[in-house]
Amino acid sequence: MIQPGSPIGVVGGGQLGRMFTLRARAMGYRVVVLEPDPRSPAGAVADRQIEAAYDDPAALAELAESCLAVTTEFENVPAGVLAFLGERVVTRPGAAAVAIAQDRIAEKERMRRAGLATAEFRPVRSPSAARSAFAELASQPAILKTSRLGYDGKGQALVTTPEECAVAFESLGGVECILEERLRLEAEVSVVLARSEDGSVAAFPAGENHHRFGILETTVVPARIPDTLATECRAAAEAIAGALDYVGVLGVELFIAAGGRVFVNEIAPRPHNSGHYTLDACATDQFEQQVRTLCGLPLGDPRLFTPVAMVNLLGDLWARGEPKWDRALAVPGVRIHLYGKSEARPGRKMGHLTCTADTPDRALALVLEAREAASTP
Ligand code: ADP
Ligand code: MG
Q1: Distance between CA atoms of 67 and 7, rounded to whole angstroms?
Q2: Mind listing the pLDDT tens digit for each residue in 198-222?
Q3: Which site from 28, 103, 151, 196 is most exposed, i.e. has the minimal number of CB atoms within 10 Å?
Q4: 182 CB within 6 A, ligand 1
Q5: Ligand 1 proximity of 288 Cβ (cutoff 6 Å)
Q6: Whose CA is nearest to atom 2 of ligand 1?
Q7: Ligand found nearest the CA of 75
Q8: 204 near 149, Cβ under 8 Å?
Q9: Which domains does the chain have, with CATH numbers?
Q10: Is the beta carbon of 107 within 6 A of some atom in ligand 1?
Q11: Cβ(334)–Cβ(367) under 8 Å?
């Protein structure tokens, strides 16, 4: 067990690292951030920042020496970096689980092996494979995704013919891809959970996600789906965490397709954007669970106290200057979280609002009202 008061580290300086750092420091830990950007969201609130690239061996060695445990805040930390750290210091999540989450093909194959339903898929590594994969899928159109490094809907193309699929493969750079049947979605849901070394799991309730232009826009909790489906989503998330022998916080994205069929989409080996509501509505939040699993402390109570909704604040909201936060915060139940990013680019996640209320519908209506109020000139 790593006592509060000890030094712990995080690879990456984004908003997830910031919220982790704030929570860890509130619990008494000292936090070291490895991040090249001198003005990063996490670096600004850390005890110390090592300003270097994520794969700089000297910096990694320094991080391992100065901390008793290290975690990450984004999934594209090279798995080799985690392996390097894992040889020197407690490192969670481990390199093996992260390597799977970084590769959509390996990820979907692993889910299938764990007995979970996924969209039908084929690996695509050449234009001719793109054509044949398209022809093989039972339902069309289909979605071609780069197997690695995609996020927020980037690196994806909807394709309707074998030829289009081959062209899309080339325009995605000729890199390894996965072709997936396009499901007709009734809802998108995520389950964030924490799993400790002894295999115990604390899952947060399923959240209902809505995306805009490929980016998560809102999460509503509890998800407005039948209880049986929410239970099924949670069971699927726990199954994948168990299959990976995962230790840490895991975000699991699921699809609910026509007829109420549940499919696992992808996993994120870290706290998840759709779990930010836990900061304001749960007995323990996802970042505290990250600290607890990292340090070998008992899992916290994931209980939800109240319906809640979250809306992401993208850089677009700054188009006419600083939003009117006083107006947003006048809406009852609303709280603001800003990540300390100096430059507001379109599509960039600058912060989020949450709102608690008596019902999920009301929470969603109020949080959208708050965002709207902030952006009105
Ligand atoms: P990212 O890593 O960019 O989040 P996802 O695989 O989650 O990639 O895809 C982004 C979004 O695209 C999903 O949230 C969903 O709305 C849609 N999508 C992805 N795969 C499928 C699919 N097989 N069928 C239907 N919609 C999909
Ligand atoms: Mg996704």
Answers
A1: 5
A2: 999 999 999 999 999 989 999 999 9
A3: 28
A4: yes
A5: no
A6: 151
A7: 1
A8: no
A9: 7-91 (3.40.50.20), 120-181 (3.30.1490.20), 185-375 (3.30.470.20)
A10: no
A11: yes
